[in-house]
């Protein structure tokens, strides 16, 4: 009986303290960590079309189309297929692709979720967090590995 | 005989494989060397002899995993054996069978858990097991044609699941027309099955006369996907998705451990401490979910305790998000280390972690008030869902399920990895063997995990700045030697999570097999539930804490 | 007080509208209007309780926010939910036993509404005051179990069948202690008439420092009060005795197959039963509409909402008992205790008073 009363006291305490831990989502945008991984942002200017991101992607999310002279034509990313593992960002030698903190996107069809390079470029920073700032210090670990040689292929 | 038995059991600091070979005598026709243990090759019609000898005379009472695979010239089943008393003592029994007649003797009479494993091997690879009590498909539908992991399987052939063969499960109310029992399908869509699990239940009034878990609804070919990814990068994101109850780092560690031992990679000590801390945070998150959903199963409605557990889990996830960048699908471990150092500013991260740890005792006190101290909860859980230790061992149950039955088995202590052996913590066991013990074990393990995290935070805080290596030198492309085989396991939130990898000289594994703790734990359910009330069966299922993503892989 | 009790609501309505001159027809119309008023009051309360109050209360217990988007405090969710539920497709299972399947929700909802006919709610809101008021209210509330059994059986669903059977077993096990405990009150009052029961409780029990404590039976016999509240929880199938629904075991019990309007009726019926239970508790143990300062009707509503709050509190804090434990508590515990209570009360009343 005492246990039952204790249970009831505990829940009543929570009811009366007035604290809630849920938030009103669209009005209160949640805080995300600087390292949080959301939708990709792509910079055509930086990209050297080395195709490392396409190769490393575990489930073929990234598709790069080049012409016969290896000139870049398309950079497509199926955001609905992405698992946000950040490997593409990790292997990119020039920081051309970054995962922003932005997790808010919708699409009515599967096709809507295929982003081309223009759409990827226009992905906004979430709350103006530039992920490059928070992640820069750690990137050295990747680039300096092995024999100090960076393998672009 | 008895002297020989002692001789074989007293193998301090390792297994005396020669003595084992002597004991097996003619049964062993060859000996293979795997990275983790020696393997004895056994003729397919002498499997039971060999296994009985190893179990009864040498004390290998834990069939950890059965791996089946097809080579160019043969099929092969590997029985990975361990001891509950000392899991570092391992031995494998390799059973090759010919291509034309892939029949092998079943291990089910020796180890009950071989039942489901051999069904899976039959289902996916196509090996027939003689003497198996119930050799049916387990993951794929009954009407599936072909064995998808076989080499001659045509991936493009359409599979027609005909409606005729797929009898309407609602059609028969009774198992047979004369009986007074009622057949009920619990799941795959049911509020308490924790995912898409189907329990074929025969009810006798309110009591469960028979229950048979039907799994496979969430089979996502995780092993196949791993076989098509490179060791270096592409496999690591997937373990997060096996046990997706935010226990991802523990799963990643299972792969990291196996692959690092396979490729002989070192991990810097600093990275080991971070790994240990992250893994224990994940364990807390996983156990919070387990306790919360178990309470939901027993309480019934969308009750307070579930939300409180979710709230505390959210706090852990916030810490993990700061550390890894994601709340559930972390992809934080890398072979040879971790992806990131602790987030800057470090003081803030330590402060946040410590805040969480400081609030934890109060939160746990609340759980005890709401759950374990509650008389109705006690009357619901004590002496229900009994799992005797012998039964648990037969089914190779591990983790909190085994420890709730008094089996003192925890790989973190018994087969140390990471930084655990340097830290001060205890393995929790309870002797009740019932649902209540399993809840108690989980709640106390949360306390122990908090203890581990606290020590890790202390260590990390004082770690000299110049020695903060998060990653060792790892070649960009890993190509382990051909035909290296390894089986390694870690203590995940649900139990022993093991990975078997066979390399073929390329940068992708030739065979990748997951030993899922939930798979074994779920197979115990009939033993716990038969003869109990339907409400207790639901509670027992909740106390097993299965994640269907891991059961079906 | 006495004047209130003498004129019942139908007579008042008749008097106000001048219907009493039309004889029988006028009386009938007045009764109908009065019943319409009371019925709507109860339905309105249910409407507030179901889609809004229940969510808000549960949210408070679980540290969440809950409905707050539509209207002040999210109150307009009631309208939105009503429209949503009614506009859903009504799915009827293939093998459903048709008339029974359709009737079950109506039986459940109407049986609870019938009970309110004899409850004195204060300020003259009292439809009828028969000699056997208390017996009548238990009788009509008991009809609900037939509705649950009909729903459970007619749905052609095994979970529903189990739920229906459980509901019957539970109602039989707890109806007896409920009535027996109420009988111990009748020993005090010497009457089954609701107005008499309320009147008896108006007398002061004792006076402490100038404050007169009325002889509510909750104060006179707290043991019987606790017994009655617990039996009532089981009777209306709320936690910890919600085994007939038991979502984690048998999905939703007897109402698994019900959708749309029928579901609304079941849902309404359940809440009406909680309120009827609250009304019985208020009338028999808490002095009916009595209370200081505020008008009687307000006090009455406060009392039944307090009972509703209690059910929601139990819902978030107390686990469900298993069906065998439920039956054991009912037959081996509650029944024995309620008889002991009855005998003791009889002795005390007979010897001392």
What does this structure look like?
The complex is a heterotrimer of chains A (153), B (553) and C (353). Chain A has 153 residues and is an alpha+beta fold. Chain A is 28% helix and 13% strand. Chain A has a three-stranded antiparallel sheet. With 553 residues, chain B is of the alpha+beta class. Chain B folds into two domains: 2-130, Beta Polymerase, domain 2, CATH 3.30.460.80; 222-552, Orthogonal Bundle (Cytochrome-c3 Hydrogenase, chain B). Helix content of chain B is 39%, strand content 16%. Chain B contains 18 helices and 15 strands. In chain B, helix 7 packs antiparallel against helix 17 (534-544) and helix 14 runs parallel beside helix 17 (534-544). The radius of gyration of chain B is 23 Å and the shape is globular. Mean pLDDT of chain B is 83; it is low at 1-12. Chain C is an all-alpha fold and 353 residues long. Chain C has one domain. Chain C has helices at 2-6, 9-17, 23-61, 77-86, 98-115, 133-154, 158-189, 194-202, 217-220, 222-236, 247-250, 260-285, 296-317, 323-351; strands at residues 204-208, 211-214. Chain C has a two-stranded antiparallel ribbon with strand order 1-2. In chain C, a hairpin with a 2-residue loop joins strand 1 and strand 2. In chain C, helix 2 packs across helix 3, helix 6 (133-154) runs antiparallel to helix 7 and helix 7 runs antiparallel to helix 10. The longest helix of chain C has 39 residues, at 23-61. The radius of gyration of chain C is 21 Å and the shape is globular. The chains are: A alpha+beta (153), B alpha+beta (553), C mainly alpha (353). Chains in contact: A-B, A-C, B-C. At the A-B interface, helix 1, helix 3 and helix 5 of A face helix 8, helix 9 and helix 10 of B.
Summarize this structure as a short list of keywords or feature phrases.
heterotrimer; A: Alpha-Beta Plaits; two-stranded antiparallel sheet; C: 353 residues; mainly alpha; disordered N terminus
């Amino acid at each position: 009986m005492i246990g039952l009363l204790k249970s009831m006291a505990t829940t009543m305490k929570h009811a009366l303290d007035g604290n809630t831990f849920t938030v009103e989502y669209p009005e209160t945008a949640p805080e995300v960590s600087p390292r949080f991984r959301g939708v990709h942002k792509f910079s055509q200017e930086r990209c050297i079309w080395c195709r490392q991101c396409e190769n490393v992607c575990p489930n073929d999310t990234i598709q790069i189309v080049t012409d016969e002279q290896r000139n870049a034509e398309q950079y497509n990313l199926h955001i609905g297929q992405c698992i946000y593992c950040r490997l593409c960002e990790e292997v990119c030698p020039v920081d051309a692709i970054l995962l922003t903190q932005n997790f808010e996107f919708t699409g009515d069809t599967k096709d809507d979720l295929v982003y081309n390079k223009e759409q990827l470029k226009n992905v906004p920073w979430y709350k103006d967090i530039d992920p490059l700032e928070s992640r820069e210090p750690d990137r050295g670990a990747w680039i300096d590995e092995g024999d100090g040689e960076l393998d672009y292929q | 005989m008895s002297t020989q038995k002692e001789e074989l059991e007293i193998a301090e600091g390792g297994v005396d494989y020669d003595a084992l070979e002597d004991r097996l005598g003619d049964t062993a026709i060859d000996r293979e060397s795997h990275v983790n243990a020696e393997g004895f090759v056994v003729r397919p019609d002498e499997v039971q002899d060999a296994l009985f000898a190893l179990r009864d005379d040498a004390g290998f009472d834990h069939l950890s995993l059965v791996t089946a695979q097809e080579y160019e010239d043969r099929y092969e089943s590997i029985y990975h054996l361990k001891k509950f008393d000392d899991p570092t003592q391992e031995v494998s029994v390799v059973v090759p069978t010919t291509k034309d007649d892939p029949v092998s003797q079943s291990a089910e009479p020796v180890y009950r858990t071989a039942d489901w494993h051999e069904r899976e091997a039959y289902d996916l690879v196509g090996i027939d097991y003689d003497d198996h009590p119930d050799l049916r498909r387990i993951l794929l539908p009954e009407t599936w044609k072909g064995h998808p992991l076989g080499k001659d399987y045509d991936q493009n052939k359409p599979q027609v699941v005909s409606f005729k063969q797929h009898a309407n499960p609602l059609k028969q109310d009774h198992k047979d027309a004369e009986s007074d029992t009622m057949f009920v399908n619990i799941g795959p869509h049911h509020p308490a099955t924790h995912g898409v699990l189907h329990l074929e239940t025969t009810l006798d009034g309110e009591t469960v006369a028979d229950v048979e878990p039907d799994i496979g609804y969430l089979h996502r070919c995780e092993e196949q996907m791993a076989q098509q990814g490179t060791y270096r990068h592409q496999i690591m994101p997937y373990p997060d998705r096996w046990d997706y109850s935010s226990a991802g780092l523990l799963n990643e560690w299972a792969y990291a451990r196996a692959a690092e031992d396979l490729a002989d990679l070192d991990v810097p000590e600093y990275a080991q401490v971070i790994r240990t801390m992250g893994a224990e945070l994940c364990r807390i998150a996983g156990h919070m979910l387990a306790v919360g959903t178990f309470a939901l199963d027993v309480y019934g409605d969308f009750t307070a305790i579930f939300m409180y557990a979710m709230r505390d889990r959210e706090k852990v996830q916030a810490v993990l998000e700061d550390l890894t960048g994601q709340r559930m699908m972390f992809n934080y471990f890398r072979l040879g280390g971790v992806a990131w150092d602790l987030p800057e500013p470090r003081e803030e991260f330590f402060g946040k972690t410590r805040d969480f740890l400081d609030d934890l005792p109060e939160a746990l006190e609340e759980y005890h008030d709401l759950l374990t101290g509650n008389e109705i909860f006690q009357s619901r859980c004590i002496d229900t869902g009994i799992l005797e230790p012998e039964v648990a061992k037969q089914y190779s149950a591990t983790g909190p399920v085994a420890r709730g039955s008094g089996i003192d088995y925890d790989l973190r202590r018994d087969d140390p990895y990471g930084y655990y052996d340097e830290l001060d913590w205890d393995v929790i066991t309870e002797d009740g063997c019932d649902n209540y013990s399993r809840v108690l074990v989980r709640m106390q393990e949360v306390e122990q995990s908090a203890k581990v995290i606290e020590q890790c935070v202390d260590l990390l805080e004082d770690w000299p700045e110049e020695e903060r290596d998060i990653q060792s030198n790892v070649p960009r492309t890993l190509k382990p030697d051909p035909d290296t085989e390894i089986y390694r396991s870690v203590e995940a939130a649900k139990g022993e999570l093991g990975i078997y990898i066979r390399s073929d000289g390329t940068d992708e594994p030739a065979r990748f097999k997951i030993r899922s703790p939930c798979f074994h734990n779920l197979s115990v359910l009939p033993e716990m539930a038969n003869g109990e009330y339907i409400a207790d069966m639901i509670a027992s299922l909740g106390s097993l804490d299965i994640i269907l993503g891991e059961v079906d892989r | 007080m006495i004047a209130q009790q003498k004129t019942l609501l139908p007579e008042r309505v008749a008097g106000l509208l001048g219907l009493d001159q039309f004889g029988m027809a006028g009386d009938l119309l007045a009764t109908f209007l009065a019943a319409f008023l009371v019925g709507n009051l109860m339905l309105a309360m249910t409407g507030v309780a179901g889609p809004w109050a229940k969510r808000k209360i549960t949210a408070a217990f679980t540290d969440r926010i809950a409905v707050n988007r539509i209207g002040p405090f999210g109150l307009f969710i009631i309208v939105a939910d009503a429209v949503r539920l009614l506009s859903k497709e009504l799915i009827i299972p293939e093998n459903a036993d048709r008339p029974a399947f359709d009737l079950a929700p109506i039986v459940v909802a109407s049986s609870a509404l019938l009970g309110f006919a004899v409850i004195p709610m204060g300020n003259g809101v009292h439809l009828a005051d028969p000699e056997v008021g208390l017996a009548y209210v238990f009788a009509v509330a008991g009809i609900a179990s037939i509705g649950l059994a009909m729903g459970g059986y007619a749905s052609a669903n095994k979970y529903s069948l189990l739920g229906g059977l459980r509901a019957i077993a539970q109602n039989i096990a707890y109806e007896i202690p409920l009535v027996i405990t109420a009988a111990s009150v009748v020993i005090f009052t010497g009457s089954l008439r609701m107005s008499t029961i309320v009147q008896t409780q108006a007398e002061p029990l004792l006076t402490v420092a100038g404050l007169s404590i009325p002889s509510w039976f909750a104060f006179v016999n707290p043991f019987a009060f606790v017994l009655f509240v617990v039996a009532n929880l089981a009777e209306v199938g709320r936690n910890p005795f919600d085994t007939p629904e038991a979502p984690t075991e048998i999905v939703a019990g007897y109402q698994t197959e019900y959708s749309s309007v029928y579901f609304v009726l079941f849902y309404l019926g359940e809440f009406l039963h909680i309120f009827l239970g609250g009304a019985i508790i208020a009338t028999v143990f808490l002095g009916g509409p009595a209370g200081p300062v505020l008008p009687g009707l307000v006090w009455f509503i406060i009392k039944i909402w307090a009972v509703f709050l209690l059910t929601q509190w139990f819902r978030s804090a107390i686990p469900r008992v298993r069906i065998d434990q439920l039956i054991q508590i009912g037959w081996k515990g509650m029944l024995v205790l309620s008889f002991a209570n009855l005998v003791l009360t009889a002795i005390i009343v007979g010897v001392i008073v």
